[in-house]
Amino acid sequence: MEYEAVIGLEVHAQLLTDSKAFCGCSTRFGAEPNMNTCPVCQGMPGVLPVFNRKALEYTIRMALACHCTINEFSRFARKNYYYPDLPKNYQISQYELPVSEHGWVEIETENVKRRIGITRIHMEEDAGKLIHDETRPVSYVDLNRTGVPLIEIVSEPEIRTPEEAGAYLRVLRSMLVYLGICDGNMEEGSFRCDANVSIRPKGAEALGVKAELKNMNSFRYVQKGLQYEIERQQEVLSAGGTVVQETRLFDPSTGRTASMRSKEQAHDYRYFPDPDLLPLRVEPQLVERIRNELPELPAEKKKRFIEEFGIPAYDAGVLTAAKELAEYFEETVNLFPNPKAVSNWIMTELMRQLKGEEYGIASCLVTPTQLADLLKLIDNGTVSGKIAKTVFEDMCSTGRDASEIIEEKGLVQVSDTEELRGIIRKVLDDNPDEVSKYVGGKKKLMGFFVGQVMKATKGQANPSRVNEILAQELGTRGAP
Amino acid sequence: MTDLYELTAAELARFLRQGKASSTEITRSFLDRIEKVEDKVKAFITVTPKLALEMAEEADQRISSGDVKPLTGIPIAVKDNMCVKGYKTTCGSRILADFVPPYDATVVRLLKEEGMVILGKPNMDEFAMGSSTETSCFGVTHNPWNPDMIAGGSSGGSVAAVAASEAPTALGSDTGGSIRLPASFCGVTGIKPTYGAVSRYGLVAYASSLDQIGPVARDARDIALVLNLICGHDVRDSTSVPTEFPDFTTFLDKPVKGMTIGMPREFFEKLDHPDVARVIDDAKSTFERLGVTFVDLSLPHLDYGIAAYYVIAPSEASSNLARYDGVKYGHRAEQFEGMIDMYCRTRAEGFGPEVKRRIMLGTYALSSGYYDAYYLKAAKVRTLITQDFKKAFETCDAVFCPTGPSPAFRIGEKIDDPIQMYLTDVFTIPVNMAGLPGISLPAGFSKDGLPIGVQLIAPHFEEGRLIQLSSAYQNETDHHLKRPSL
User: Fold this and answer.
1) A65, pLDDT greater than 70
2) Does residue A276 sit at the B interface (CB-CB below 8 Å)?
């Protein structure tokens, strides 16, 4: 039987507010353990939460970008469970009345566009971190992260493949970063994903029994975990077994998932409205203000890049995936107004340097000005396109200017007609057989002669001038 | 000459301003009194003489420099569920027996800014769960009028301290009657302000949507003075209401002629104690003499008050008390195997039976599949009770009823019968459910010589009206002036 997977994703994104969701403590990452804490986020007896309205504004930004409805009234609820990284032993979250619901985002896989529904986006607070002593059976708790504002973005179970899941996550991350509300760092945990996955016979309406997958802390792991889990469930069903509802942990070292807790062991979170916080009212004016202040989002930017710069849709997609890369592109085009050349260079040479990771641009040593300068040097014939590639590699590893590298290494292109003519004549003199074959009609040998000239000039000859002069010289030798 | 400890806060303030006594002298007088009678009353978990004398000295300096506020230099006892930075705040529980908070509750900050003198931390039912101050892990507080009797609860220590002249004023907290009931049992005046009038920041939560801090004192004048100090919006408490409060002393000595008081028949149908019935009748006559008209009215959903309360309060408590897990502060079991066992043993050792009972009740009520039938239903009852009162206040200025169904009962009498204990709060719980202000006034004595209080309830933020009625009543009667012999 052929099966299809039904995948729903729960994404947690840490908001980039200066202070925590319910107290005034800093959210700065990397402080000494428990330095960014106060009685409120330590869960001391008698403390009360006070909601950070900035977190609300950030949440509304994402909700609007995902075409969600913003609820005028929403409520904070307590999610009760015991864990030492949760000082109150309940998490302030939203349950029955989230701040926003009913949205969608568009994803694209293999040139097929699909809308994935967003069930809800709600606000909550993050937990702390446990630090386990490796020499003794003792654990410590660091509450710096406790109370950092999060949004949880819950998708409809409309994702069908691990690839779609990857595309969906990339779209969400891209939007969050564009909106300036999350740094999107999956490895550091500021962007996290849990998945609900089940399978059913292709074409069936009824949903199968789902497993919840956790601990997939990279895009690759999400796809691998889902792939493994889908195959595992198929094997179970094919062998006549039944899938059990459970929570499973992905193990990056094996690429497998393993049962963490069964349905029977599942937590009953005993949600109820948090009596310490009033119902949250979002004034329509606030929503309108935020809507008007929304920046250009990835999909809009992509469309504009295609129209304004005449670059292919695929290129525009890559260039706009990360906000910083799109800005890099635009800045470079401003300085060197040949969008196609800039796009080509970024898509090939720069992406190779970034190992295909758009967000790597943040740590790239070459500034848009430096790239534009390099492109100008190619354009005015100072350096050949081929040589420029090696120059660019140098720039990426040292951050130096192109002109400095070209000068130091003597990589200036040979464009001088008389100099080139001398070299070309020598090449022709040294290869009389090929010359006569060429003259006899084997025009393909042109490439051979160009290659020889390039070899003789260590690649620094201006290729168009070489072609030009070669044609002239071979023409003279063609006459009987 | 009258001993200083026998005076009210207002009288002491006058003494201070007139230079007849210093805050240090006043404080010493109360500390001596505590020394003398505390063995019989056991009102305090912690007495803080050093802190008190330091604060008194500071107050005296302020007074001599002319920086005097109405309650500067006046002693107060602060129920042991309000955080005082650097001093034990135990909530009457083993789990917090050694807990020293690193911050001040907002009310404590206000007392300090005023220059009041903190005498100590009075006893209370564990986490304010009880009506008799018998569930405290530090022992029972005795009724100053009869040591065999309970003082009432949960603010039994605060109230007994005032009744025994161990403090002129005290702060209590009231979730279902915890200020008013003991005030009635001990013959003092106690008010639960409107929910949201006094900041809860630093009040260790029992049931967050019902808890409210309020003053205990001898008369309405002192109540007004303390309310002036503690009522007000606090940005640290999202449920505190951003509203302006009047000067409550302006309601003192104001005539009440022409006011209307409602008598809810559902309350009076329950009244089966002859002494309480007599006291109620006397009080009614007094008010009538003052020109107040009484009207009969109905609060139809009152009967469901206790049932709904014992769903909502334990539900919130089960979550509020989850933080006491031995991880961060408070008691931690010495012997355990692994994390879950550490939680279980810590909590098994740290909490008393009544707290455990309510945690279990609340945990059950919030469980998946039961939430709608219990918590949600109770929340709806709460709305109905609130609407009942709202309707009642269309025909009257205040509602009048007993504070407790009986005078103080014997120590041990109800401790093994939780239902009987819970029913003690039948007249007070609806007021918390509706978030209204309610005051208990000393209104007479039982034939056995135990104080009996009456309760007045006003619309939201009409504490002034309660002060007005109470002051008029106390100007006309002397029940509040009676002191137990200790």
Assistant:
1) yes
2) yes
Q: What residues does each domain of chain B span?
A: 4-259+402-481
Beta bridge partner(s), residue B403: none
**Contact between chains at B368 and A268 (C-beta distance less than 8 A):** yes
Interface contact flag, B323 A49, Cβ < 8 Å: no
Query: SS3 sequence, chain A?
Result: CCEEEEEEEEEEEECCCCECCCCCCECCCCCCCCCCCCCCCCCCCCCCCCCCHHHHHHHHHHHHHCCCEECCEECCEEEECCCCCCCCCEEEECCCCCCEEEEEEEEEECCEEEEEEEEEEEEEECCCEEEECCCCCCEEEECCCCCCEEEEEEECCCECCHHHHHHHHHHHHHHHHHCCCCCCCCCCCCEEEEEEEEEEECCCCCCCCCEEEECCCCHHHHHHHHHHHHHHHHHHHHCCCCCCCEEEEEECCCCEEEEEEECCCCCCCCCEECCCCCCEECCHHHHHHHHHHCCCCHHHHHHHHHHHHCCCHHHHHHHHHCHHHHHHHHHHHHHCCCHHHHHHHHHHHHHHHCCCCHHHHHHCCCCHHHHHHHHHHHHCCCCCHHHHHHHHHHHHHHCCCHHHHHHHHCCCCECCHHHHHHHHHHHHHHCHHHHHHHHCCCHHHHHHHHHHHHHHCCCCECHHHHHHHHHHHHHHHHCC
Could you list the pLDDT tens digit for every one of the 486 residues in chain B?
Answer: 689 999 999 999 999 999 999 999 999 999 999 999 999 999 999 999 999 999 999 999 999 999 999 999 999 999 999 999 999 999 999 999 999 999 999 999 999 999 999 999 999 999 999 999 999 999 999 999 999 999 999 999 999 999 999 999 999 999 999 999 999 999 999 999 999 999 999 999 999 999 999 999 999 999 999 999 999 999 999 999 999 999 999 999 999 999 999 999 998 888 889 999 999 999 999 999 999 999 999 999 998 999 999 999 999 999 999 999 999 999 999 999 999 999 999 999 999 999 999 999 999 999 999 999 999 999 999 999 999 999 999 999 999 999 999 999 999 999 999 999 999 999 999 999 999 999 999 999 999 999 999 999 999 999 999 999 999 999 999 999 999 998
Q: Is B319 exposed, middle or buried (0-12, 13-18, 19+ CB in 10 A)?
A: buried
Q: Are the beta carbons of B201 and A88 separated by less than 8 Å?
A: no
Residue of B nearest to A79 (CA): B319
- C-alpha B67: how far from its chain's center? 30
Distance CA(A356)–CA(A348), nearest Å, equals 9
Q: Is A206 on the interface with B (CB under 8 A)?
A: no
Task: Note whether A141 contacts B: Cβ–Cβ < 8 A.
Answer: yes
Contact yes or no for B239 and A278 at CB 8 A: yes
Whether A275 has its CB under 8 Å from any CB of chain B: the answer is: yes
Domain ranges, ordered by start, for chain A: 3-289, 296-409, 417-478
Nearest to A412 by CA among A421, A402, A398, A422: A402
Q: Assign domain B4-259+402-481 to its CATH superfamily.
A: Amidase signature (AS) domain (3.90.1300.10)
Residue A411 to residue A397: CA distance in whole angstroms: 18
A50: contact with B, CB 8 A cutoff? yes
pTM: 0.91
CB contact under 8 A, A46 and B203: yes
Q: Which residue has the tokens 């939430």?
A: B371
Cross-chain CB nearest to A276 (options B239, B315, B329): B239
Q: Does domain A417-478 have CATH number 1.10.10.10?
A: no
Give phi and psi for A265, each to the nearest 5. Answer: -90, 0
ipTM value > 0.90: yes
Q: Which of B208, B318, B329 sits opposite A275 (nearest CB)?
A: B208
